[in-house]
Amino acid sequence: MILTYKVRHDRDFSIELAKARQIAQFAVEHRTLSSKDVKHIGLKSIIANQILRKYTHDRKSRSVTKVKLSIPAQGIRFSHEKREITIPCLKLNLDYYFRNDFEKINRIEIGRTYAFISVTVPEGAIIEPRGYLGVDRNTTGHIAVAGNPLTGKIIKLGKKADHTHKKYKNTRKNQQRKGKYRMVKQTKNREQKIVRDLNHKVSKKIVHEAKQNGTGIKLEYLHGIRDARSGRDFRYSLNSWNFYQLQQMIEYKARLLGVPVVYVDPYSTSKECSRCGLIGNRSGKSFKCPNCGHVDHADANASFNIALRPVFVKGIDRLHADRDACKGNTDIHKEATL
Ligand SMILES: [Zn+2]
């Protein structure tokens, strides 16, 4: 499985990046794959070739504003012992602090401040689960609530998200009213960054909880989420994009540890009683069952229901089907470097 790590490089590559933009522009205009055609620009041919290949083939890449220096595997040396990556053609050494068990480096892309290092890491052997951890993502006030019906344990995660969303929504509204549209965009980006960090923490907790107890993970198969990025079929309007992001993070973190992820039919998971299966009364955060008398936190009840439902879609299969659409198995990790 492929992971991309982000490492600060502390070098000024502005001249090389300007040349890279020129080459990308040339590729878009002339559709050439021959590095001889761009020799006059003066970027190392091993990098020029990568840029030509990317921008000549990709019809969507009309915009060449964010061109990076792309170095293929054959231009990269590394030492696991010294934790050092070397790119001879740029005379660049990078120390890395991310996991050291990667099998190979596929590619490195270098921008103004960071190097994006794409590595292949081994996946964990899939465990045979002892029951499931049910994860309810459509919760009131939390990013997710996870429940294990075998132990009765409930974990509520990401309480800050709701507060963050409200705060930034207000800020955006004010900025919009004042016509400060650039700041609206900045606010949106800042919020997305915070939510992303939260999703990383929440998904990590969920996957570790499952790993520790030897369970698999069950999520609701939420239709419409897949298309959230394109803006179509917005069934879960609030934060639907973030649900999807959390799902992807759970999937890949689980795969690394061999924890199976499966999906269940979401129909009335929040209304059914997890004890007797009949429809109960949900109001706000509490759930009461008039049939068996069961009383529970509404999200806890929902997460138990999810954990107990039969499997509807297997995670990894679904992931393969969606791979082209969503690049479900990659993610950027932040790495602090010295
Ligand atoms: Zn009941």
List the helices and strands and how they pair.
Elements: E1 2-8, H1 14-30, H2 45-57, E2 69-72, E3 77-79, E4 84-87, E5 92-95, E6 104-110, E7 114-120, E8 132-136, E9 144-148, E10 153-157, H3 160-177, H4 181-213, E11 216-220, H5 240-257, E12 261-264, E13 281-283, E14 286-288, E15 295-297, H6 298-308, E16 313-314, H7 315-326, E17 332-334
Parallel strand pairs: 1-17, 8-11, 11-12
Antiparallel strand pairs: 1-7, 2-6, 3-4, 4-5, 6-7, 8-9, 9-10, 12-16, 13-14, 14-15
Helix pairs in contact: 1-2, 3-4, 4-5
Can you tell me about this structure?
This protein is α+β, with helices and mostly antiparallel strands. 36% of the residues lie in helices and 22% in strands. It contains seven helices and 17 strands. A six-stranded mixed sheet has the order 10-9-8-11-12-16. Strands 2-6-7-1-17 form a five-stranded mixed sheet. It has a three-stranded antiparallel sheet with strand order 3-4-5, with no helix packed on it. Helix 1 (14-30) crosses helix 2. The radius of gyration is 24 Å and the shape is elongated. Zinc ion (ZN) binds next to loops.
